[in-house]
Write a structure and sequence with these properties.
By secondary structure, the chain is mainly beta. 0% of the residues lie in helices and 47% in strands. Strands 2, 4, 5, 6, 9, 10 and 11 form a 7-stranded mixed beta sheet that branches. It has a 4-stranded antiparallel beta sheet with strand order 1-3-8-7, with no helix packed on it. A hairpin with a 5-residue loop joins strand 4 and strand 5.
């Protein structure tokens, strides 16, 4: 399974970015997709996860109401729309998918497949 994340960049506080994660190597539509982030000097933290049916989503409290996760199973792609960005959102963002078809899972240890990460910097 290969995951390719993209869409990061430099944005001013209050701005928006949309991250994308394209998967290959297995049936994309049968597994949940998640986003994590890792700020400099900190552990990798859960951000959001979406079920394979797209009907269920979970968010970290710190991003709830500002970030929206979605997926397009026909395009094998998951998205993370990030609005009202804050400097504290600065991090490398990783997409991930588990080997097992379980939902929801919010721990780093539960995910076997990871994208390479894309850097989001929120700064004026």
């Amino acid at each position: 399974v290969q995951l390719q994340a993209s869409g990061g960049g430099l944005v001013q506080p209050g701005g928006s970015l949309r991250l994308s994660c394209t998967a290959s190597g297995r049936s994309f539509s049968n597994y949940p997709m998640a986003w994590f982030r890792q700020a400099p000097g900190k552990e990798r933290d859960f951000v959001s996860v979406i079920s394979w049916t797209t009907t269920s989503t979970y968010y970290a409290e710190s991003v709830k109401g500002r970030f929206t996760i979605s997926r397009d199973n026909a395009q094998n792609t998951s998205y993370l729309q990030m609005n009202s960005l804050k400097p504290d959102d600065t991090a490398v963002y990783y997409c991930a998918t588990p080997a097992k078809r379980r939902f929801p899972m919010r721990s780093v240890e539960q995910y076997e497949y990871w994208g390479q990460g894309t850097l989001v910097t929120v700064s004026s």
